[in-house]
């Protein structure tokens, strides 16, 4: 798949086949995130790879899923088979604002995952304190986001937004439809003086 197609077709996946993701693939995804662009090249992120069954369960209990869908969380036989935790290292960047960094790293991971045939879901609704305990993080590291990963068990596609409604939904095939604004609605034309 070429990069432009990946950028246009990558969507969040919330149901996964119960097939393990190889550790070397997860490491390759972290390598892509490591090379993402960071402000001032400070590189304040670390990454924790989760793929062991017991830890997968523990991490899942710290996540919230698909707020727009009734019963939007994956069932036990649809859960992610891996996660990558995005961590902020305050010993490198003394701040609570890692937004640009997580954006760059998260996009790198989710696009690279697509290249390996994986689905992904970027999770921000988390019990970060509990995750920090599970990962036994030192005080200098904070949990920023989680990327859920696995081989997709559903489809997710972009559809035209109607009447400003941003709520994604399931169609009759249980596939996710994600409303997106039209290009003309987001492209601002700067007027030359």
Overview in brief:
This protein is of the alpha+beta class.
Q: What does this protein look like?
A:
It is built from 6 helices and 7 strands. With 193 residues, it is an alpha+beta fold. α2 packs across α4. The longest helix has 17 residues, at 99-115. The mean pLDDT is 95.
What does the secondary structure layout of this molecule look like, with pairings?
Elements: H1 3-9, H2 23-34, E1 45-50, H3 53-60, E2 82-89, H4 99-115, E3 119-123, H5 128-135, E4 141-150, E5 156-160, E6 169-170, E7 176-180, H6 183-186
Parallel strand pairs: 5-7
Antiparallel strand pairs: 1-2, 2-4, 3-4, 6-7
* Widest sheet, order of strands: 1-2-4-3
Q: In whole angstroms, how far apart are the ends?
A: 42 Å
Element order: H for helix, E for strand: HHEHEHEHEEEEH
Taking pLDDT < 50 over at least 5 consecutive residues as the criterion, the unreliable ranges are none
- Described by the principal axes of the CA atoms, the overall outline is globular
CA-atom Rg in angstroms: 17 Å
Helix-residue proportion: 25-40%
* Number of separate helices: 6
Mean pLDDT over all positions: 95
What characterizes the major β-sheet? Answer: 4 strands, antiparallel
Instruction: Count all strands and give the number.
Output: 7
Structural class: alpha+beta
Proportion of residues in extended strands = 15-25%
């Amino acid at each position: 798949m070429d990069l432009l197609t990946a950028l246009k077709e990558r969507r969040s996946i919330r149901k996964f086949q119960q097939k393990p993701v190889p550790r070397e693939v997860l490491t390759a995804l972290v390598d892509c995130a490591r090379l993402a662009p960071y402000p001032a090249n400070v590189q304040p992120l670390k990454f924790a790879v989760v793929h062991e069954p017991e830890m997968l369960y523990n991490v899942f209990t710290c996540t919230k899923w698909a707020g727009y869908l009734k019963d939007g969380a994956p069932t036990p036989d649809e859960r992610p088979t891996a996660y990558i935790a995005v961590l902020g290292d305050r010993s490198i960047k003394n701040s609570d604002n890692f937004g640009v960094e997580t954006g760059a790293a998260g996009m790198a991971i989710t696009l690279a995952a697509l290249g390996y045939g994986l689905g992904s879901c970027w999770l921000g609704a988390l019990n970060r304190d509990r995750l920090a305990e599970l990962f036994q993080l030192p005080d200098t590291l904070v949990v920023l986001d989680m990327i859920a990963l696995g081989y997709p068990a559903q489809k997710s596609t972009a559809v035209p937004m109607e009447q400003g409604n941003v709520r994604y939904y399931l169609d009759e095939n249980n596939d996710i439809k994600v409303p997106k604004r039209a290009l003309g609605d987001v492209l601002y034309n700067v007027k030359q003086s």
